Amino acid sequence: MSTPHVPIRHGIYRILVCRPNHRLGNTLLLTPLITELQTLYPGAEIDIVSEGDIAHDVFKEWFNVKQVFCLPRRGFKHPLAFLRMLSRIRRTRYDLVVDPNVGSGFARTLTRLSRGRYKLGFSDTPTKALTHAAPRELAGRHMALRPIHLLRWAFGAAASYRYPPLAIHLNEEERTEGRNVVAALAAAQRAKGENGLRIGIFGNATGAKRYTTDWWADFMATLCEAHPTASIIEMIPAHGQSMLREKWPGYYSSDIRRMAAVLAGLDLFITADCGVMHLGAAAGVTTIGLFRVTAMAVYAPYGGHNAGVNTGDCSGGETARHVLGMIATTLGYRRCG
């Protein structure tokens, strides 16, 4: 039986977060929770259960994170590897186990199987898997905020203070290398002027979230007409092919930290709705995400001046004009040329 009226404030030194998901975006959307845990329990050590290998790269530079348990993808198809990892997780008795998901049976199973003094998650009905079950209505819409609402409910913290941003914690060496790459790629366009914006474009996404090359050509023509001195850098997708017909210098890396370092060296990042969109937000570059099928209220690039644009059936040029208005007003960049 849950005990929701007892705040979890003291005696928390070992924390386990159960977020078994292999997607880059969902892993990055977990980072505000880890920041919040470090704020509320600064003396605690945090372990994270994820899936695949991406979480190792995301949490590489986090001071309070000790272990990232990366379960094999589709773990039930690899029972021996899954059971070995589960055995490693169960060796530690945690003071707090957090299931930040809404409706994930796999995460709830891992929470139930782990050894913890307090177990926290969302549930509208009493469950033996949790000692503290928060009402699902507290979760809210945006994926980055749901775990924060959960933790603040359990801690008894005020909901009015600032929400932590997405973060990947690039070190100074990574940032320097990223700035150098951006400078080198921008130098190839220096004839346009040295004071223009450095704008990154990522044109790839999965399934119906992807825009055609013709759509992007229309978008880019309108954008470049308004900002003729801008240096455009295409962020090349994992498949290694340009989505912009190779008209601008591109950067490719299979290493997400290197990709984040280059994104951090930009002034602005415009991208289709995808995991790399959240990587831009985590890297600290102002990010505009383009949406047409997924819920923008749930997945829009989070924090700072980041924003989502619902493109609907708009053409690339119409969407670009809307983005230009955001650049001029919300982001403070004036029209050039």
From TrEMBL:
Source species of the chain: Luteibacter flocculans
Designated name of the protein: Glycosyltransferase family 9 protein
UniProt KW Transferase keyword: yes
InterPro entries from the UniProt entry: Glyco_trans_9 (IPR002201), LPS_LOS_Heptosyltrfase (IPR051199)
Keyword field: Glycosyltransferase, Transferase
Superkingdom classification of source: Bacteria
Database matches in CDD domains: GT9_LPS_heptosyltransferase (cd03789)
Glycosyltransferase recorded as keyword: yes
Pfam families linked to this entry: Glyco_transf_9 (PF01075)
